[in-house]
């Protein structure tokens, strides 16, 4: 057997095929590179407990609701992941989302602009806010924590001002936007098609990549391992589609959220910009010396984060069919940040994935929905969410220490 | 032929005059060693050439043209590659990602196969002992990191390579490898600036030795004609400076 270019060092353990892939994951987890393992374990525990406490929790109807409730905060969390990756934070995402919902309502309802124009204007406003944060951060070196804390207050004020004396604007129920957030579901056949396409895509991508690697004389995943992985994905997705399909099915808004997660995953893991984001979070000085425009990277993530917050705000308003003074207030801010962290994004920067936002927000929404079903009041919900967040941060810190001792910091 | 020359370069940090009126010439296919005590200003000089710090005054000429090096990107573009003493690697990224940081192949759809292949080529060329290029740099030893950093500097086809204490963290075998590599760089017609504390290394590979002392030039020697004792004397200042003054004027001592 010829040895591939990347496996020639005699100190390497040789692991082939499926069992090799599994061993690798276990080994990496031992070394503190936990990836999404803690959040998946956490989710299983939380779901089990909540189901035991109330058998309605895992019902199809409730889970459909949960997916719809996840989308807005999840999209905001996606932006927070980007900011955390460069080792910064945005505390104002809640206010920006509230402001965006208010601006949308005013332009669409009060001013009578076409809905797409109102949406575009709100998202643009979010992007401008992020750009402003970037400028303040780059030019004056003010910590992002402080800039965005000011933003939290400032944009809440602006939201109240925009909403005017009445303080609340209803969106028409028959508008496409409200429909999208409340009533639009993917037909069953299309949902299954999505599931199949995803699995085929994963297999084809993996297969072509493996072939390219083999041709270049590098080690590659076996076809069996790839097939098993794709089959597993197909099984999971098909089950989800089937189960949610028992009642209303998969909402378009949730599909939209997952679509954004996939796009961000691509941008972060497969483009030069994504590399720059991780590099800046890992070692700014090294990134700067590598010729990366560090300021542009900071600006781009602040812009993305605020723009995602704006999109989340629009969807939240659409879901409620109204924008009011408490939109984006309460726990939206902390839920979005907590979702990012619970999803495995390190507060120390340079570590985390777009999928983390998806998993994290499902954890957050599960707690919220489960405790609401139990008729427990929001005081308990806050406490439980706080404890889970604390656990996530502890896992982050401990795994970081473990990485250091296993040489994977 | 001189590729890079500095005249009258000065740099102060607050009240500290880190460099005063420095001159330096590097020719293609020449290895220039810069030696000096701790705090002599060697790293500062490197950072000026790498575009990390701007000099307060002085002239930099690269391939016959006056140039400014305001940013690291400008240094890259001119063809000056630098391996810093504090390596400047991202510990959370793997070897390939570090090697290609800022110069990834196919920016919009990263070609990781091509990058991995090229990484192995570079590392083999340096006879690097790195078991896997897919591990985070945090998992590598000091010597392996040095190798990664040197391999990284070769990617952009530079004309001048600056190595800040390249052998300080290395074992015997890897030091020899790096010195071999320095010779190979010279054979390929690159100008090499090597900062070192180790006189044996300097004598082994350098053509010219430039001594810095307290931020000033304190002698330029032809390695073939100077003794280790004379270099050390210039470094510590335990000389009446006649040697260095004559050498500065280009008069053989
Ligand atoms: N960024 C900086 N800020 C302030 N002082 C500095 C900085 N960099 C270097 N210095 C000072 O400049 C002098 C030269 O330092 P350096 O170039 O690192 O010396 P060497 O590399 O020869 O040991 C030292 O006195 C050092 O303290
Ligand atoms: Mg130094």
TrEMBL record, chain A:
CDD domains, alphabetized: TM_PBP1_transp_AraH_like
Gene Ontology CC: plasma membrane
GO molecular function ontology, one term from the record: transmembrane transporter activity
PANTHER family: ABC TRANSPORTER PERMEASE PROTEIN YPHD-RELATED-RELATED (PTHR32196), XYLOSE TRANSPORT SYSTEM PERMEASE PROTEIN XYLH (PTHR32196:SF32)
InterPro entries according to UniProt: ABC_transp_permease (IPR001851)
Highest taxon in the source lineage: Bacteria
Membrane-spanning parts: 36-57, 63-86, 115-133, 145-169, 189-210, 222-244, 250-268, 296-320, 332-348, 355-374, 380-398
Record protein name field: Xylose transport system permease protein XylH
Localization: Cell membrane
Function (record text): Part of the binding-protein-dependent transport system for D-xylose. Probably responsible for the translocation of the substrate across the membrane.
Keywords: Cell inner membrane, Cell membrane, Membrane, Sugar transport, Transmembrane, Transmembrane helix, Transport
Its membrane topology: Multi-pass membrane protein
Principal place of residence: membrane
Keyword Repeat annotated: no
Automatic annotation (TrEMBL), chain B:
InterPro entries: AAA+_ATPase, ABC_carbohydrate_import_ATPase, ABC_transporter-like_ATP-bd, P-loop_NTPase
SUPFAM superfamilies, A to Z: P-loop containing nucleoside triphosphate hydrolases
PROSITE patterns: ABC_TRANSPORTER_2 (PS50893)
Keyword terms, alphabetized: ATP-binding, Nucleotide-binding
Ranges of residues in domain ABC transporter: 4-239
A Pfam family this chain is assigned to: ABC_tran
Organism: Nonomuraea longispora
GO molecular function annotations of the record: ATP binding; ATP hydrolysis activity
Record's protein name: Sugar ABC transporter ATP-binding protein
């Amino acid at each position: 057997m010829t040895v591939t270019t990347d496996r020639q060092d005699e100190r390497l353990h040789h692991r082939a095929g499926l069992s090799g892939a599994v061993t690798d994951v276990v080994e990496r987890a031992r070394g503190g590179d936990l990836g999404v393992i803690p959040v998946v374990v956490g989710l299983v525990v939380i779901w089990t407990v909540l189901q035991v406490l109330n058998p309605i929790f895992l019902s199809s109807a409730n889970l459909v609701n949960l997916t719809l409730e996840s989308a807005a905060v999840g999209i905001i969390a996606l932006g927070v992941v980007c900011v955390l990756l460069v080792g910064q934070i945005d505390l104002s995402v809640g206010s920006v989302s509230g402001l965006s919902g208010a601006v949308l309502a005013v332009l669409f309802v009060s001013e009578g602009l076409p809905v797409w124009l109102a949406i575009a204007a709100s998202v643009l406003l979010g992007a401008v806010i992020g750009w402003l944060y970037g400028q303040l951060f780059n030019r004056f070196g003010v910590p992002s924590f402080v800039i965005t804390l000011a933003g939290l207050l400032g944009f809440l004020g602006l939201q109240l001002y925009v909403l005017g004396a009445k303080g609340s604007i209803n969106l028409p129920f028959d508008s496409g936007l409200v429909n999208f957030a409340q009533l639009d579901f993917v037909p069953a056949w299309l949902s299954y098609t999505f599931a199949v396409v995803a699995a085929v895509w994963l297999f084809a991508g993996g297969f072509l990549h493996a072939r390219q690697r083999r041709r270049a004389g590098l080690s590659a995943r076996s076809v069996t391992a790839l097939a098993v992985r794709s089959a597993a994905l197909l099984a999971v997705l098909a089950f989800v589609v089937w189960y949610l399909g028992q009642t209303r099915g998969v909402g378009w808004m949730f599909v939209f959220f997952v679509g954004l997660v996939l796009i961000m995953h691509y941008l972060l893991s497969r483009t030069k910009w994504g590399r720059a984001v991780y590099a800046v979070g890992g070692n700014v000085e090294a990134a700067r010396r590598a010729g990366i425009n560090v300021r542009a990277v900071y600006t781009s993530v602040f812009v993305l984060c605020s723009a995602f917050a704006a999109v989340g705000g629009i969807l939240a308003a659409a879901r409620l069919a109204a924008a009011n003074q408490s939109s984006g207030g309460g726990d939206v801010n902390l839920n979005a940040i907590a979702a990012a962290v619970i999803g495995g994004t390190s507060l120390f920067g340079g570590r985390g994935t777009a999928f983390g936002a998806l998993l994290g927000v499902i954890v957050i929404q599960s707690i919220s929905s489960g405790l609401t079903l139990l008729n427990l009041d929001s005081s308990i919900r806050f406490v439980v969410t706080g404890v889970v967040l604390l656990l996530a941060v502890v896992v982050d810190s401990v795994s970081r220490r473990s990485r250091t001792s296993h040489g994977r910091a | 032929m001189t590729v890079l020359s500095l005249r009258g370069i000065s740099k102060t940090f607050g009240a500290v005059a880190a460099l005063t009126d420095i001159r330096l010439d590097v020719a293609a296919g020449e290895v220039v060693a810069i030696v000096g005590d701790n705090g002599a200003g060697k790293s500062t000089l490197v950072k000026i050439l790498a575009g990390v710090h701007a000099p307060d005054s002085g002239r930099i000429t690269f391939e016959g043209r006056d140039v400014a090096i305001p940013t690291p990107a400008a240094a890259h573009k001119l063809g000056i590659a630098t391996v810093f003493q504090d390596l400047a690697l991202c510990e959370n990224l793997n070897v390939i990602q570090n090697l290609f940081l800022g110069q990834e192949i196919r920016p919009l759809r990263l070609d990781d196969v091509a990058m991995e292949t090229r990484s192995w080529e570079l590392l083999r060329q340096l006879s690097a002992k790195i078991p896997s290029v897919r591990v985070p740099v945090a998992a590598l030893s000091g010597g392996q990191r040095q190798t990664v950093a040197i391999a990284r500097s070769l990617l952009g086809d530079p004309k001048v390579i600056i190595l800040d204490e390249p052998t300080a963290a290395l074992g015997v075998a890897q030091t020899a490898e790096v010195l071999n590599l320095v010779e190979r760089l010279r054979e390929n017609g690159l100008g090499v600036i090597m900062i070192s504390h180790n006189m044996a290394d300097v004598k082994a590979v350098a053509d010219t030795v430039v001594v810095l002392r307290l931020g000033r030039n304190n002698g330029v020697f032809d390695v073939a004609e100077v003794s280790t004792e004379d270099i050390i004397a210039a470094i510590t200042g335990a000389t009446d400076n006649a040697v260095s003054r004559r050498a500065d004027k280009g008069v053989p001592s």
